[in-house]
Amino acid sequence: MRPLGIFGGTFDPIHLGHLRTAFELQQTLGLAEVLFLPTGDPPHRSEPLADANLRLAMVRAAVADQPGFIVDDREVRRSGVSYSVDTMTELRAEFPTRPLCLLLGMDAFLGLPGWLRWQELFELVHVVVAHRPGWKAPTKGPLGELLVDRGTGSVQELHRAPAGRLYIQAVTQLEISSTELRQLVEADRDPRYLVPDPVREIIRESRCYARPHD
Ligand code: ATP
C-alpha cells in the first residue's frame, strides 16, 4: 500500500514553493496521493489575513489540475483550534493500516518540539522533512535525539511501516513565503509566477490582501 502524504499549512496564500515541494515529495517517495490540509485557526501563529474559507478556495484552485493532490477541509470546518495530533489521530482512524507521511518544511520541523503532544505524532504517522541541499541535521536537543531514534534514509521503510520514522529529503528550494507575498500584494504589486494563475485571480478579485483603505 503506497503511503498517503499529508501537507498541512495556513496557506495564506498557497504558493509555488508549497506546490513544488509537495510534488517532488510525492514523486520521490512514491506517495499515492497528497492531502492538502488548510488549517482553520492555527495554534502556532497570529491570525491569518484571508479567512479560512478563502484560503481553502485558493488551495482548491491551486491543486484542481493535479491528479493525486486532494484537499481536505476538516480543519476549516471544525470550530476552534486544531492540533496536528488530533487531526492525525482522525486520519489514522480512517486509514488504519496505510502508511501516512506528514510532510513538513524545515521551518515547521524546527518548531516541532513546541507542538502539542508532538512525540505522539510518531505513533500515528511518519514525518518527512523537505530541506535545502547542504542543510546540516541537528545533532543535539530533542530533534537531534529524534533523528538518532527515528531517522531513516530508506524510502522502503516509509512504505513498510504505517508510522514512526523520520525521513529528510532534499527538494528544489523556491524562496517564496506567504508573508512576503501578502506584503507584495499590499504594496499593489503582482504575484504572478509566484502563485498559480487561478490563485492570483482569487487574490485579485477578493482583494483579500489589499490595503484596507484602498
Ligand atoms: P509564512 O511565509 O507566512 O510563514 P508559510 O508559507 O511558511 O508562511 P504555511 O502556509 O503554514 O506557512 O506553510 C505550510 C508548510 O509549507 C510548512 O510545512 C512550511 O514549512 C512549508 N513551506 C512554506 N514555504 C515553503 C517554501 N517556499 N518551500 C517549501 N516549503 C515551504
Q: How would you describe the overall organization of this protein?
A:
The protein has helices spanning 16-29, 52-63, 74-77, 84-94, 106-110, 121-124, 141-150, 155-160, 178-186, 197-206; strands at residues 4-9, 33-38, 69-71, 100-105, 126-131, 151-152, 166-170. It is of the alpha/beta class and 214 residues long. It has a single domain, classed as 3-Layer(aba) Sandwich (Rossmann fold), CATH 3.40.50.620. It has a 7-stranded parallel β-sheet. Helix 2 links the parallel strand 2 (33-38) and strand 3 (69-71). Helix 2 (52-63) runs antiparallel to helix 10 (197-206). The longest helix has 14 residues, at 16-29. The protein is globular and about 50 Å long. It starts with a strand and ends in an 8-residue tail after the last helix. Adenosine-5'-triphosphate binds at residues 9-11, 17-18, 21, 104-105, 107-108, 130, 174, 176-179.
Can you give me a brief rundown of this structure?
The chain has 10 helices and 7 strands. It has helices at residues 16-29, 52-63, 74-77, 84-94, 106-110, 121-124, 141-150, 155-160, 178-186, 197-206; strands at residues 4-9, 33-38, 69-71, 100-105, 126-131, 151-152, 166-170.
Based on the coordinates given, report the CATH architecture. 3-Layer(aba) Sandwich
| Beta-strand content | 15-25%
SS field, number of helical segments: 10
Instruction: Name the bound molecules.
Output: adenosine-5'-triphosphate
CATH class: Alpha Beta
Task: Compute the number of structural domains.
Answer: 1
Give the % helix: 25-40%
**Biggest pleated sheet:** 7 strands, parallel
C-alpha termini separation: 52 Å
Strand tally: 7
